[in-house]
Structures are given as C-alpha cells and as structure tokens.
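Sample entry follows:

_____
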Amino acid sequence: MSKAMYTHSVPVFKQMLTALKAILAQADAQAAAKSMDPDAYLQARLYPDMFPLVKQVQIAADFARGVSARLAGVEVPSYEGKERSFADLDGLLTRTLAFLDGVPASGFEGSEAKEIVLRPGTPKEKKMTGEAYLASYGLPQFFFHVTIAYAILRHNGMAIGKRDYIGPNP
C-alpha cells in the first residue's frame, strides 16, 4: 500500500500544479495582451464569500506540500502567502514543485497506518490514519482549490478546457 500512497499523492499533486502553472501563465499573457489589470483575474471570485484566485492557488499549493510532507515524515515547509501577482504565483508553484521533487518515495513506507493529527492541541484537533487523511481529506481539499482556481479563470473568459485543467499526460 505504501507505493500507492506515494503514487496517489506526489505525482498527482505535481501533475495538477504543473497544469495550474500553465493556466496561470495563459491568464497572465491574456491580461497583458488585452491591457487588463491582472487583478481582474487575481482577485476574482466565484461568489463574494469565496476566496479570490490568488488565495485558491496558495491553498492548493499548501495542501500539496502539507499532505506530502506529513505522509513522508518530513518537515512541512511554510511559506508566507504574500503572493500578489502572476509572477509571485508562478514562483510559489515552482517552489512547491521543487519541494515535491525532493520528497522521498521511501518516506511513504507505512504511511497508510500513520496517525495524522490536524490542528494539534486545539478544539478542532482531528486524528486520522494516513490513508484516510490522503483519501478523505488531503486530496479532496487540494482538488477543490485547484478546481475553483480553474473555474474562476474560465468564468472570467479564459478559453481553457479539460485538457488544460488535467495538463499533459504523465
């Protein structure tokens, strides 16, 4: 099962973040070509009570790093979350992909049974196995934020489709 834990996490995160990186580059280019303020995309939301595009991308990157690190037993890297431009988001995704490249597959050995504690020491503390953490929490959260980022751009006129969302075949 440990091989599956790695295979169903790190390569999936890398595929989707690489696709998101390409979509964001398209949005940046489209904003420049149309002489638009990039914030028209970066601060766009699907609904007023939802996070804007920039925050959706930050959270997706956070989940990719956090889930992979916790399952592999390495320190979760922390970034400040101060990205404000397409270049900043590109840098965030580049750093996240580099981190994922360095996560050892061997660290996932036995991770399906490993106890994962979320928000330790708080009233919202939650404990689960690594398998439940990946399948029922980490991946759904990650895909939610990647999907919302895609939907924000699509809703705001980007000519992107399923192939863009999924990215190149591995």
User: Anything to note?
Assistant: The radius of gyration is 16 Å. The domain at 2-113+128-166 is CATH 1.20.120.450 (Four Helix Bundle (Hemerythrin (Met), subunit A)). The chain has a mean pLDDT of 95. Helices lie at 2-7, 10-33, 39-42, 53-72, 86-102, 130-155, 162-166.
